[in-house]
Amino acid sequence: MEFNPKAIFLDMDGTILNHQNKVSIHTKEIIDQVRNRGIKVFIATGRAFEEIEELVPPGFQVDGIVASNGMVGYAGHEVIFKHSLSRELVETVIKMARENKVYYELFPYGSPRITLKQDRPYVENEIREPKPEGVGINEWLSRKEAIKEKITWADEMIGNEFSKFYFFGRTKEQINRWKEELEQLKQEIDFTTSISTEYNVELMVANVNKATGIQQMLKQFDLSETETMAIGDSDNDLPMLRLVNYAVAMKNAPDSIKEVADDVTDFTCDEDGVFYYLKSRLMLKD
């Protein structure tokens, strides 16, 4: 299928991020070339905006970022749109997580993620060695880093605006039990959940996902879904891939993602798959 996009949305984990949680210099350079062609390039990630800078090479630039699975959008450092979890929901979920001993990180806007100090013993215990066999190395490294230096262990909740919760389980059985608890809570308080691996679940405002964030970003730039390509690899990318005109799955994506895509990259995220795909697809030179 011949398709010349005016906008490209790129997932991070498993897409432009390799399994060591880094964006390669080759990927940065191909994004520069694409943007020099007049094509807008955006990030659409489950990660919080504040996390991104340390994962990308110096000088990395895109036209906009949809972060926290569609909860907030930025053009540069200007906020284009933003949703926030209610205080009631945050307090309820933390209490439930404590009762179920579920690892959690709460992401306030404009400040580091927090976990309450009283929950620290069991949260740290969830990240004990050895790494559970099924957990991906990138997710495990992110959790180890969070425990060591990213989480603020707070006496109480900090801030009044919150972008998302991230939850982790050492086993599929553990995280699936927690997902069932969250589904029950949805009967009382509406919200959206999203997963990027079999060992996590994230919680956002109701009816918010990457697709809703992309729609708001496209409106800001006077673009449409019919002019748009997206590349992703996991379940939280499905709304995005279903929205755009041309959906691309990474080679390392599961079959369930590849089935909804129009194309699949020839290389994985560890092999600079996005670099090679965009270089070939848009006929870009070194």
From TrEMBL:
One of its GO terms (molecular function) is phosphatase activity. The keyword NADP does not apply. Keywords: Coiled coil, Hydrolase. CDD domains: HAD_Pase. Transmembrane segments: none annotated. InterPro entries: Cof, HAD-like_sf, HAD-SF_hydro_IIB, HAD_sf. SUPFAM superfamilies: HAD-like. Gene3D superfamilies: 3.30.1240.10, HAD superfamily/HAD-like. Residues 168-195 form a coiled coil. It comes from the Bacteria. GO terms for cellular component: cytosol. This is Cof-type HAD-IIB family hydrolase. It comes from Neobacillus cucumis.
